[in-house]
């Protein structure tokens, strides 16, 4: 076949001549103004002159934005559960699952940072650490892992400390699910429903029995069964996030201590043992 053609390759462009595009932006709100891009895109301030510090900053800033959205959606889920609007809760929990996927994938980007390149700017972090992420702590509290000791690091920021204290004292999404089970007639003990929500949740055999009743009659209690499975997805994805974090840290710094004072990988490994919904895991064994 001849290399020549009756239709030679040519540059293609999109014709905007007849498109009613708003070119006169100073007279109207622009895309950048709506998203406040000036502040967002100028919020990266590397402390060193190393190329990869920009990657490190943006990965963590992006994660914080996704966590902000996850917290926003979790509160809406709790509100829906209180109103017995389970279909609404399912829709939001599905969205949260996709948000969690983004949080997991961001570690793949950070994992392209080599140990040598990280050491070139690590000292510039000082004592700053992901351990100090108050939004991460608020996520754990909202889902159900309460631990008062972990908010002590935020005492220097009264507004953040007060917000974490309020979340610590409030019922978690799992507490709201147990209230829902009680309203549906399942025998949830009073000491489970009325307790100090700031204290870590203690598994109860009566709660296991209630969830078992749901799983044994999925056609009758299909919405509660669907809720339970979505909670398990939430828990599972959180574990995937923790695991991806731990392996990324291990890949980059090995067994060095964390910049925030933790033991690093060994501390992150211990966190993998935490589960938000213990009775739902027990149900799998009991079925």
Question: Would you give an account of this structure?
Answer:
The mean pLDDT is 92. The chain has 13 helices and no strands. The longest helix has 32 residues, at 222-253. The chain is an all-alpha fold.
Share in helix: 55-70%
Q: What is the total tally of β strands? A: 0
Globally, the shape reads globular
The number of helices is 13
**CA(first)-CA(last) distance:** 67 Å
Mean pLDDT: 92
Task: Please render the helix and strand layout as text.
Layout: H1 31-34, H2 37-41, H3 53-82, H4 86-110, H5 115-119, H6 134-143, H7 158-169, H8 173-183, H9 190-193, H10 205-216, H11 222-253, H12 265-271, H13 278-286
What key attributes describe this structure?
mainly alpha; globular; single chain; 287 residues
């Amino acid at each position: 076949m001849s290399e020549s053609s009756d239709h030679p390759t040519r540059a293609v462009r999109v014709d905007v001549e007849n498109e009613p595009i708003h070119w006169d932006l100073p007279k109207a709100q622009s895309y950048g103004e709506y998203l406040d891009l000036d502040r967002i895109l100028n919020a990266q301030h590397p402390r060193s002159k190393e190329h990869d510090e920009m990657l490190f900053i943006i990965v963590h800033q992006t994660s914080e934005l996704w966590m902000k959205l996850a917290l926003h959606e979790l509160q809406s889920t709790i509100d829906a559960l209180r109103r017995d609007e389970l279909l609404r809760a399912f829709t939001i929990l599905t969205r949260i699952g996709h948000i969690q996927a983004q949080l997991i994938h961001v570690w793949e980007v950070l994992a392209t940072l080599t140990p040598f390149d990280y050491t070139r700017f690590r000292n510039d972090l000082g004592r700053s650490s992901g351990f100090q992420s108050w939004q991460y702590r608020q996520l754990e509290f909202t889902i159900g892992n309460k631990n008062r000791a972990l908010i002590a690091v935020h005492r220097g920021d009264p507004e953040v400390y007060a917000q974490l204290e309020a979340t610590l004292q409030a019922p978690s999404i799992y507490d709201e699910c147990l209230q829902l089970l009680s309203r549906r007639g399942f025998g949830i003990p009073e000491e489970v429903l009325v307790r100090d929500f700031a204290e870590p949740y203690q598994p109860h055999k009566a709660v296991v029995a209630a969830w078992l009743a749901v799983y044994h009659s999925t056609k009758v209690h299909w919405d509660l069964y669907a809720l339970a499975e979505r909670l398990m997805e939430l828990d599972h994805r959180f574990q995937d996030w923790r695991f991806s974090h731990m392996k990324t840290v291990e890949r980059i710094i090995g067994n060095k201590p964390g910049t925030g004072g933790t033991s690093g990988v060994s501390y992150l490994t211990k966190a993998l043992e935490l589960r938000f919904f213990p009775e739902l895991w027990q149900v799998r064994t009991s079925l």
